Amino acid sequence: MKTPAQGLKILDIDCKLVTELVTRFIKNEVTKTGMNKAILGLSGGIDSALVAFLCKEALGADNVCGVRLPYKSSSPESLSHAELVAKKAGIEMLTYDITAAADGFASAEFVFDTACAKFKPEGAAASAKSFKMGATLTHHHLGNVLARARMNTLYHLSALSKSMVTGTSNKTELLLGYGTLWGDLAYGINPVGDLYKYQVRQLARYHGVPEEIIVKKPSADLFPGQTDEGDLGYSYEELDYALFRLVDARENPKILAESGEVKPELINFCLKKIMSMQFKRQMPHIAMVSFRTINQSFNYPRDWAM
User: Fold this and answer.
1) Alpha-carbon distance 99 to 102, whole Å?
2) Binding residues for ATP
3) Where would I find the NAD/GMP synthase domain in this sequence (predicted)?
4) Which domains occur in the chain, in start order?
């Protein structure tokens, strides 16, 4: 019986071939829009590091800009790792602190009138006439605010420089819905969205991403000690193995559970996330009232007639 660590060998990729496919994808998708540059958020993590290296290879270092978007609680290590990536890849780097934007949202006061009193946050006193947004923000909510502030910045810079916003979410995250709509899940193209975390690490080593970035625990850097795997409740190795067996190999969940190679509770976790988070992988549904409904009966690819 294979353990997940042993079984992960089935996810091994031909790094040279994948690089050729992905860099061709980047170049084609960017240039056919009339642009020749890419811009991305540099978090100091492995996914954005790999995307930076791939964009550099596809478009040339002078045509790639990595943007550090720190919040006041961001780890100094994240900032230094992002700078390390930019220097090693030879790409341009900008820094824009989103603290004022995020704290401005948190400090704003929301005032109720009679028409909207029914939409008070749960737990608010019946007599409350207003509340500060910051009082409602859990770590999860704050993460969404920060992700959207960062993407707002990237898209503004994209418009100024006529460059393509490039996503950095991997396949594991996309399948599990581990991302923020209109935040880190907003982008023009995504070069690594079909690569599991295991494969991202493999390709990152092939491209010479610094080892300290490859081996550190992935984190959204929301608060000290926060990690992706802590949020998800499983290691990326466990998740990648289970997801590959369920999604790519299309194995029957019941038979897979009976084999003992994947924990039944992990199978159930993955299936529930895949199904419940499908809305994050699609454009919003439009009600059909005609014979040609966008994204339903009218499904031309985005580069049609270009």
Assistant:
1) 5
2) 41-48, 168, 197, 219
3) 22-284
4) 12-222 (3.40.50.620)
The answer to whether 193 touches 172, Cβ cutoff 8 Å, is: no
**Total-model pTM:** 0.93
Give SS3 for 252: coil
The number of helix segments (H) and strand segments (E) in the chain equals: 13, 6
Identity of the amino acid at 68: R
Give the pLDDT confidence score for residue 127 in this predicted structure.
72
Strand partners, 93: 66
Could you list the residues known to form a binding site for deamido-NAD(+), using ranges: 148
Q: Which residue has the tokens 């935040």?
A: 183
Residues of the binding site: 41-48, 148, 168, 173, 197, 219
pLDDT in the model for residue 163: 98
CA distance 229 to 257: 22
**Residue 37 confidence class, pLDDT cut points 50, 70, 90:** very high
Widest distance between CA atoms in the chain: 64
pLDDT tens-digit series, residues 203-250: 999 999 999 999 999 988 877 778 899 999 999 999 999 999 999 999
Q: Which pLDDT score, from 0 to 100, does residue 2 have?
A: 57
Binding-site entries for Mg(2+): 47, 173
Of 3, 6, 2, 50, give the one whose Cα is nearest residue 26: 50
**Main-chain phi, psi angles of 111, to 5 degrees:** -105, 130
Instruction: Take residue 256 and report the two structure tokens written for it.
Output: 């897979």
Alpha-carbon span 74 to 183, nearest angstrom: 17
Residue with tokens 């028409």: 115
How does DSSP assign 176-213, residue by residue?
A: HT-S-TTTTT--SB-TTTTS-HHHHHHHHHHHT--HHH
Residue 121 in this model has a pLDDT that exceeds 80:
no
Count of CB atoms within 10 A of residue 288's CB?
Answer: 11
pLDDT at 154: 98
